[in-house]
Amino acid sequence: MDIVYTLWLRSVKRYVRSKSRIVGSLGMPVFFLLALGFGLNSVVQIPGGGGEDYLQFLVPGIIAMSVLFTSVFSGIQIIWDKQFGFLKETLVAPVSRLEIMLGQTLGGATTAVIQGAFILILSLFIGLKLTTITGFVIAFLFMTLIGICFAAFGIAIASKMEDMHGFQLIMNFVVFPIFGLSGALFPIESLPEWVIPLTLIDPLTYGVEGIRYGLLGTSAIHPLVCLAALGASTVVMIVVGALLFRKASI
Amino acid sequence: MTAIHVENLTKRFGNFTAVDAISFDIKKGEIFGLLGPNGAGKTTTISMLSTLLEPTSGKARVNGIDIQKDQDGVRKSIGIVFQDQSLDEELTAWENMDFHGRLYRIPKEIREERITDLLHLVELEDRKESLVKTFSGGMRRRLEIARGLLHEPSVLFLDEPTLGLDPQTRNHLWEYILTLNQTKGITIILTTHYMDEADRLCGRIAIIDQGKIIAMDTPDELKDRVGGDVVTVSSPDSERIAAEISAPWIFGAEQHDGQVTIRLQSAEEHITELIRLFGERGYAIASVSIHKPTLEDVFLHYTGKTIREDEAGATDRIRMRMMGRRH
């Protein structure tokens, strides 16, 4: 455990020090929240909802987005470690690759949840009404799972990549679709029928719905189903990430 | 006592043999050098001995531990300074050390004490709270050496320790390395393509070229094997000189980039006769110099080329391989 903690500590230290990255990666979610939230609030009516407005509906989606992007990015960061040689220092130490991978995953998840929390707090100022403390805790549980799941996903991708050249490709063709299909921006029931199966295989969908349940008290998918589906996805991602990272060459 | 035992160690990448059945033994407390041009297989050898790379065939033991059977055992007992930097630039010097100490599971109190001592040793104690990205090349190198020593390894690997450093810093680092070896009795295995570095530091040297060890001995023995003295002649007729010159006191001559290196017995005595020979045969001579054999001459003697020529060759080989891959 102390090795996992060591790797975690390093990730968190680096995160706290990179003020520009913290602010920078808040930019897009805040922009989405303000532009879409205020822009579409009066135009969009959520069908069948309990009367919440679009801004309220959007907040959980944007929180999930913030966690998703930060965690994938922090996982992919081991490519930097590879390029700047630091990965060798960790790999030549008498520790298992699983410990390294877990530490990196948890570190990434932690920073991702902090980023998500920033959005959550910001939302309180622009009209999000919190129902219960339990709801708050539920939202954090789902944020944590999203963070772990996608940090492990980032590590899996990074283990297969040689350098940062493929990064843009991954962002555009993998991470954005995961976000777009998740029902972060719109209710999944309103999608055309053939798209719905795609949203249902997207782990982020369950994360978004889980956070939505926590913050708003309603969700399109039962929260326990969300928990089971996202939990299972997280376990799978950790296993895949650990296996690929074990095979990764320096 | 043997610190490192290597037997027919081989590494192939596809059909390119980077390290070709090398064998050697290093005694405890020795400074052993792997000398050769870039691409000769030095780093590959170090990577295999430090368990970062699996050998294709052959055996090796570090501190009596088999590198394939007990990787963690090997890793605990060695320290390594890589050719490329491997520090976290976003952390301070202290934090880099602390990270390393935690990875090697050194208890907190011992860890802090050793970090303080080692930072003092490499004269970085007043910069311990500075981020590594503000450090110069020499400071980074010193920090990496300190870090490699933190878990008190009995064998230290240094891969091109002074590559890209200015002469003053190099001298400084050499002092550290020699002190470490003498005061702590640490076995050091270093790779270099600097002749003067190998000469200055190493008790024994293995000259490695194209994956093979072509000579191995103390620097003095190696130079003695070249024999006597060396006369280097710059001449437009260098090829003819190398091919034609002969006398009972001449051991041999090699031609390389417009120069001839002639190995001979007591050069001071024979130099006038040598110049007379040049005159008789009508060679044009630009300059002549006499010196004791250096490791450069040793390398030339064994490979028929200077280390610089060979580096160009290695670059070409790598380029060829890259081209080959693309097709």
Automatic annotation (TrEMBL), chain A:
What cellular-component terms does GO give this entry? ATP-binding cassette (ABC) transporter complex
Where would you say this protein principally sits, based on its record? membrane
Where is the ABC transmembrane type-2 domain positioned along the sequence?
20-248
Keyword Transmembrane helix attributed = yes
Q: Which residue ranges traverse the bilayer?
A: 21-42, 54-80, 101-127, 133-157, 169-188, 220-245
Subcellular location(s) of the protein: Membrane
Does the record carry Transmembrane helix as a key word?
Answer: yes
Give the superkingdom in one word. Archaea
Tell me what this protein is called: ABC transporter permease
Which species is this record about? Methanogenium marinum
Automatic annotation (TrEMBL), chain B:
Establish whether keyword Translocase is in the entry: yes
**Keywords on record:** ATP-binding, Cell membrane, Membrane, Nucleotide-binding, Translocase, Transport
Similarity annotation: Belongs to the ABC transporter superfamily. Drug exporter-1 (DrugE1) (TC 3.A.1.105) family.
Which Pfam families does UniProt cross-reference here? ABC_tran, DrrA1-3_C
Q: Which PROSITE patterns does this UniProt record tie to the protein?
A: ABC_TRANSPORTER_1 (PS00211), ABC_TRANSPORTER_2 (PS50893)
- Indicate how the chain sits in the lipid bilayer: Peripheral membrane protein
Give the GO molecular function terms.
Answer: ATP binding; ATP hydrolysis activity
Q: Name one GO biological process term.
A: daunorubicin transport
Localization: Cell membrane
An annotated GO cellular component of this protein is: plasma membrane
Domain ABC transporter stretches? 4-235
Record's SUPFAM superfamilies? P-loop containing nucleoside triphosphate hydrolases (SSF52540)
Main localization (coarse): membrane
- InterPro entries, A to Z: AAA+_ATPase, ABC_transporter-like_ATP-bd, ABC_transporter-like_CS, DrrA, DrrA1/2-like_C, P-loop_NTPase
- Protein name (Swiss-Prot/TrEMBL): ATP-binding cassette domain-containing protein
